[in-house]
Amino acid sequence: MTLENYTVKEILRLPAKGLTGRRKIRTAVREITLENVREVLEKALTVHSLNCGEITYLWEYYKGSQDIQFKEKFVRESINNIVTVNRANEIVTFKTAYLLNEPIQYISHGGEDAVSEKVERLNELMRAEDKESKDKEIVDWMHICGVAERLILPDAENDQDGAPFCIYTLDPREAFVIYSARIGERPMAGVVLQVDEKERQYATVYTKNRVFEVTREAVREIGAVEDEEGGSYGHLLGDVPLVEYENNSARMGAFETVIPILNNINRLESDAVDSVQDFVNGFDVFQNCEIEDGDYSQLSLGGKAVKIKTVVQGMEAKVYRVASELNQSGVQQRVDDLTEAYLTICGMPNRNGGSSTSDTGQAVIFRDGWSEAESRAKDTEKLFTRSERRFLRVALNICAARKEGDCQLGLELKDIGVNFARKSLNNLQSRFQCMSEGLGNSFMHPMDVYNAFGDIFGDKTAAYRRGMAWHTEQEEKRMEALDAEIDRERVRAKERTKSEEQSPTGGDGGRRTSSTASGHPSPEEKAARRDSG
How many Å apart are CA 392 and CA 492, to the nearest integer? Predict the structure, then answer.
């Protein structure tokens, strides 16, 4: 049902110039039923087999089985070096590591604290299912062949890991999604190709509410049970549980567009090594002279003297070597140009650096291509988020169907946002200063400030709430400290008043100063003198 008509060598030698992205599989039927599922599947497999061959080529290319492995040389065939510079692996590794710098998290869309707590519970369920590592597998497949397949199914009722669902990352050569040919192209079915214990291949087809098993002999519906009203249903997932992730709208891999450039780099590197070996193994020419049999083998060993005889008297005898050497500097210049080209096309930073000693951090980011890498990552996030929301819809339906435990979250899809917590450290000090000034401006709402500069925290909403809670807590502590200080001042004032009342000087607390003690008459003494005078 896939590639039984191809040999491995034929798959690896597919022409790279024919790769323009994986084809989207569509069907015109309004609903996939038990009666038409075989017909729909047979048409889908025709397109899938073409995609499967290309995916295999890209997968092998990523692993290092590249076009240079089939290099042919027609002159001096014995000198045929093959050098594979696996830039495809470098591109995929960088793209995946940069996009998933931090684990993907779910955040609340400005909801109440109760909603945020439920979203955090959803994150805990995803961590229990080790979704972080499975996201890495999905993104790897996206960057290798342009598409990736994820299957989510209900977990066993007695499973104690805390997650009511299981997440599987499938090989895109063994799974695909069939879309509607009508407006919207909604997913109609997910197909998983499997092999039974007798090595016979069969297909499991998941629709929105049915599951079919298709073999070469028969088609049957599995998992169908009767409901209370006498009808039947296959599953209660509410949507197709097989979700397809796309790298871009053309469904192309990260290095697919630059395969011709990568092949030329491999060719230049291989020919450069051939040139060195050709030069070392150059031909020795004996002009107008000859040597005895067996003497040349002694000469090739080194340290031997060989006697030569002139063939024609009166003519000069010569012995010299014929060898051609490639201009290595010219080859390296060409390799550097091609390297710069594929880095630019793929949106990857270069490592050339610069000669300027006055570069700022922001200047380096723009000059070396890091801003372009960030733009490409944000572009990939949009399509990833669309597929992730389809995955979340099924996950929430599974949680809602669980009757026991604390997995009934009560969340709606609109309450959840997908956050790529990729920390950007560009102009960190400047952004912190702007954020501090914004929070100190009474005409700006703190949430607006967090929306403008809060990407340094990852989850802006959570950071805003933590910040407001911390601010309220500190204000309460400050007011408590101020009230305590006021109370202590009142106690001290009462003690001073009591001390003044008990003083022998008449309750003045000793504040009156006599003329003999200070050298000057007190106000009371001055008044007494005026009265007596």
Answer: 64
Q: Is position 156 within any domain? A: yes
Which stretch of DSSP H or E encloses residue 296?
Answer: helix 295-301
How many Å apart are CA 276 and CA 437, to the nearest integer? 64
Phi/psi of residue 232, nearest 5 degrees: -130, 155
| 303 and 182 co-located in one domain | no
Does residue 506 lie within any of the structural domains? no
Domain boundary among 420, 445, 477: 420
**At CB < 8 A and 24+ separation, what contacts does 424-433 make?**
424/374, 424/455, 424/456, 425/456, 426/361, 426/362, 426/365, 427/361, 427/362, 428/456, 431/456, 432/456
Question: pLDDT for 408-464, tens place per residue?
Answer: 777 888 888 888 876 555 566 777 778 888 888 878 888 777 777 666 666 677 777
**Same domain for 172 and 113?**
yes
**Short-list 190, 252, 256, 242, CA closest to 380:** 252
Please indicate, yes or no, whether residues 416 and 466 belong to a single structural domain of this protein.
no
Cα–Cα separations (whole angstroms), residue 302 to 315, 319, 323, 402? 28, 15, 19, 83
